[in-house]
Amino acid sequence: MSLLERFMGLLSRSPIAVTGATPNQDHDRPRVKQTSTDLSDPKFLLTTEDKFAIRMAIVRDGVESIENVTKGEKLLYLRDTMQFFGENELYLRSLFSPDSVPRKPINPFSPEAYAPVSELPCPSSGWPIKEEKISIPLEGSPEQVALTLLSQNGWTGIHSEGQTIRCIFRALLLPYLIEHNPYKAVDPLSTPLCHAIHYLIPMTAAGLDRMLANSKEVPRAPIEEMHRLIDYRLSLPSCVIQGDFDIVAKSHGEVWPKTPHSGLHIDQYLSAIPGEFWHSLLEIYARQDGSLSNGWPDLEITNGKEVMLVEVKVKDRLTPHQRLTIPVLMALGLKCRIVRLIKT
């Protein structure tokens, strides 16, 4: 069963309804009145499956064709009067009325600020990393033991081997990846949600014609457009990116192991990772050489001020991929540690 078929099976049991416009519809209807208490029940919150259904409807029919969104008996979006209701108002506004979403100020985009990466960056200090040895009784997986230890110092996170950060990155770029999906006609959402991100970026930028011609050229104009989108998306409330992250994580997890669960709160990651990191990651993936495709440390944790990637070892050593990837991540501004657990 395909990813889309699994999702459609879930959607058939969902109370969400995305309704298209009908001919000769009356556009002078009065504004709908619903109070916040009408929608305070958690059953009216959008689930990941609901968000996926809305995205699917937009891809299939276009934003202008969606007349309303309801869940159960409650109206969440009405196009005629451009009204939004409920706890997911900002996410729905980002889809149907993006100009009405409050934004943080961003610096004007300058193409000169982002040049193609000819050589992978290296950290100015701190590499090779000195292992930190910790003697401790080992019960359960070493990664979970290390995560529990680090949580005592205010760190929270997950054992996801780079998939958390890469799913956030995909969520930031999701509107572009969907719109410019080279396989949109036959595969509207699986490719943007599940295709390996280090190949999806150059593939989407190059387009189908260059792919069929077996061209390795990645044009700059699409990459610059993605840079602009990253800046724009980072200016939005984190709940907007959270909504798309939930879709990404749910879909991605059907294909890729160690994917974070849908619903993992990412606001602390977004606030702790500098914006420049996402732009640098985009340029590295635009190289189309597989850089940063694997070798990420085990744990992705944050304290809200910084993000730390932790590789947990018991008996083995760093792999060749880890020795290539970790110093690049350090050069991009992420703190990395290597913890060796010694069983007592």
From TrEMBL:
Single GO term (MF): nuclease activity
Annotated stretches, region: Disordered: 18-38
Domain of life: Bacteria
Signal peptide coordinates: none
Record's protein name: VRR-NUC domain-containing protein
